[in-house]
Amino acid sequence: MKKDLEKEMAWVLEEKYRHKPTEKFYKDVARLKAGEPVDYVIGFTEFLGCKIDLSKKTLIPRKDTEFWVEEVIKDILTFLRMSEFGKDKKIRVLDIFSGSGCIGVSVLKKIKNADVVFADKDNNCIEQIKINLKLNTSLIRANKRIGGEERHSVIKSDIFSKVRGKFDFIFANPPYVAIKKINNIQKSVLKYEPKIALFGGSDGLYYIKIFLSKAKNRLNPGGKIFMEFSPEQKTAIEKIILKNRYKNFEFKKDQNNRWRWVEIF
Q1: Is the pLDDT of residue 144 over 60?
Q2: Opening angle at CA 125, ends 100 and 120, nearest 5
Q3: Rg (CA), the chain
Q4: Alpha helices in 174-262, H assignment, sequence order
Q5: Would you list the domain boundaries of the chain?
Q6: What sign for the dihedral angle of Cα 152, 157, 160, 165?
Q7: Local structure of 104: helix, strand or coil
C-alpha cells in the first residue's frame, strides 16, 4: 500500500508539477492519502492515446474498457478495409452511457470516416464530453473530412429518449454494478466516483434490460452493438438477448480472461 502511494505521489509530481513540489503538491498528497483516486488528483487519464480530462469527476475509464474498445476498433477498421463499400465508407457510431466520452473520442481519433453521437443523461457528463472533444481537437481534426464537416454531436438523453436515427455501430458501457454487491466495491470508488455511472439496480441489469430492448431498432442493416458488463452477468445477459430476439451474439473476454463484453449483430 505504501509503495502504491509513493508511486502515485511521484506520478502527480511529474504530471502536474514537473518534479517541483509546491504547496499545492502537498495538498494533492493529502488527497491521495485520504483515498482519492490518482486520476482525479492529476485531473486526467490516458485512453487509447487520447487525453481524457476528468475535471467534472465523471467515471474513471478502466483498463478493461480500454482493452475491448481497442479490439473493436481494430475489427471495424479491418471490416472497412475488406468491405465492398471501401475503407472510406462513412459510418455512424453511437457512444451511449458515454460518461467522459473516452470511447467516442477514441473512435473519432482512430476511424477517420466515423461520425459519432455521444449520449448521456448526466449534465456533468455532457460538459465533460465537450471538454474532451475540445482537448483532443488536434487528434480528431487530423481525420476531419474535406470541407471541414464536423464528425460529432453531443446529446443529453436518458438512454435513447433524445437520440435520433440509426447507427452502424453502438458502443455501450452502461451502469452495471449490482447494488446488492455494494460491499464488494472499493471504498475509494464508492466515496469519489459517481454512483449514477456505477449502479444498475439490485442485480445490475436495470439499464442493460432497457438498452437491449430498444437498441435493436436503432441499428442499420448489418449494424453491431458492443456492450460491456460484469463477468458474473453473462448468463443473465444471454437470456435478455434471446428474449429480445437478436439473431446473433458473441461473448468475449478481457485481458484478464474474464467475460467482459458482448458483440450483438
Answers
A1: no
A2: 100
A3: 19
A4: 187-192, 206-215, 234-243
A5: 1-42, 56-264
A6: negative
A7: helix
Residue with cell 451502469: 175
206 burial via Cβ count (<10 Å: 0-12, 13-18, 19+): middle
d(Cα 264, Cα 213) in Å, to the nearest integer? 13
Residue pair 36/192 in contact by the 8 Å Cβ criterion: yes
Q: Cα–Cα distances in Å, from 201 out to 84, 175, 177, 210, 211?
A: 43, 9, 8, 12, 14
- CA torsion, points 193, 195, 198, 201, in degrees to nearest 10? 170
pLDDT of residue 170: 98
Half-sphere exposure of 126 (CA within 13 A, CB side): 11
First to last CA, the chain: 44
Grid coordinates belonging to 218:
436503432
Banded pLDDT at 139 (limits 50, 70, 90): confident
Residues 111-135 have a mean pLDDT of: 97
Contacts of 153 by beta carbon, 8 Å cutoff, 6+ apart? 116, 117, 118
In CATH, what number does 56-264 get?
A: 3.40.50.150
Is the separation of the CB atoms in 58 and 194 below 8 Å? yes
Residue 161, phi then psi, degrees to nearest 5: -55, -35
The cell for 29 is 498528497
Which of 76-90, 187-201, 228-242 comes out lowest in average pLDDT? 76-90
CA separation, residue 214 to residues 165, 171, 176, 243 (Å): 12, 14, 17, 12
pLDDT at 146 over 60: no
Low-confidence winner among 28-32, 42-46, 113-117, 145-149 (lowest mean pLDDT): 145-149
Average confidence (pLDDT) over 70-77: 97
